[in-house]
UniProtKB/TrEMBL annotation:
InterPro entries: Haem_Oase-like_multi-hlx (IPR016084), PqqC (IPR011845), PqqC-like (IPR039068), Thiaminase-2/PQQC (IPR004305). Ring cyclization and eight-electron oxidation of 3a-(2-amino-2-carboxyethyl)-4,5-dioxo-4,5,6,7,8,9-hexahydroquinoline-7,9-dicarboxylic-acid to PQQ. It comes from Streptomyces noboritoensis. Belongs to the PqqC family. Its EC number is 1.3.3.11. Residues 23-232 form the Thiaminase-2/PQQC domain. One of its GO terms (molecular function) is pyrroloquinoline-quinone synthase activity. It catalyses: 6-(2-amino-2-carboxyethyl)-7,8-dioxo-1,2,3,4,7,8-hexahydroquinoline-2,4-dicarboxylate + 3 O2 = pyrroloquinoline quinone + 2 H2O2 + 2 H2O + H(+). This is Pyrroloquinoline-quinone synthase. The keyword Oxidoreductase applies. It holds the Pfam family TENA_THI-4.
Length: 246
């Protein structure tokens, strides 16, 4: 009965764009993986060479699936201008010809850390939890509406700061990794900032109702969980090779 006295529930009014952005940023501030214990140890210089190599090998699984999830998003756009914008993301990772692009730069990071290409591309060392986290992200973008798929990429707003911290940490604490290997991270500072800004403008334009805005915030929280779970799996490390044997 009381709901009839006040049929408009003020809490369901849409946030203005400033409020929406600050709610999105609050999610990243609280849940982005820069706070994950594995990243904290990485930045302090506490990772062993084996742990750092395990991260590089497993993160490659994420990198190689980013253009796959972007292709799912691309297929949802209905204008040439938006498709062009998203196509550029795919090209950033895949390059426009052999020997270029982010995936190639990650392979070079691996080589700089003493991991040969075959070890990375075979996928043989990808941990089960990493597979699940990456599958979760790709399938989220495949199955959820465009607004949520784009909102999930907004972790990139926080990525440039993390790239700067990581570059400094690598230079200071892990000098055994050849300096050229860090080109991936240097390139992502600019690309991540640009991509994050573009995605934020789209989310602000599309999320007009409170329900849509809350879905966008939830999508970003989900993505933070993906990145967090990935690092949980990397931190735990290899399942016992003899596990499951009778
Ligand atoms: O190393 C990182 O911490 C990190 C984080 C993220 C991110 O925040 O999602 C991305 C990347 N790197 C990255 O390299 C990258 O290409 C990328 C694409 C996306 C995305 O969701 O579309 N995130 C990220």
């Amino acid at each position: 009965m009381s709901s009839r006295v006040n049929p408009v529930d003020d809490t369901q009014l849409p946030w203005n764009e400033v409020e929406l952005e600050s709610r999105l940023r609050a999610v990243s501030d609280a849940r982005y993986h820069d706070r994950h214990p594995f990243n904290v140890r990485m930045h302090k210089g506490d990772l062993s060479p084996d742990e750092l190599r395990r991260w590089i090998v497993n993160r490659f699984h994420y990198q190689r699936h980013i253009p796959v999830k972007d292709a799912h998003i691309l297929a949802k756009f209905d204008t040439p201008a938006l498709r062009r914008t998203w196509l550029r993301r795919i090209q950033d990772h895949d390059g426009v010809r052999d020997g270029e692009g982010g995936i190639e730069r990650w392979l070079r990071l691996g080589e700089a850390a003493g991991i040969d290409r075959e070890r990375l591309t075979s996928g043989a060392e990808v941990l089960p939890g990493v597979r699940l986290a990456v599958d979760g992200y790709v399938n989220f973008c495949r199955l959820r509406p465009l607004l949520e798929a784009v909102a999930a990429s907004l972790t990139e707003l926080s990525a440039p700061g993390l790239m700067r911290t990581r570059i400094e940490a690598f230079e200071q604490h892990y000098p055994w990794i050849e300096a050229d290997g860090l080109t991936y991270f240097r390139t992502r500072i600019e690309q991540g900032g640009r991509d994050g800004g573009e995605a934020l403008a789209l989310v602000k334009a599309w999320a007009r109702t409170r329900e849509q805005q809350e879905r966008a915030v939830a999508a970003l929280a989900f993505k933070c969980d993906v990145l967090w779970s990935l690092l949980d799996a990397v931190e735990r490390g290899e399942p016992d090779a003899s596990g499951g044997a009778p």
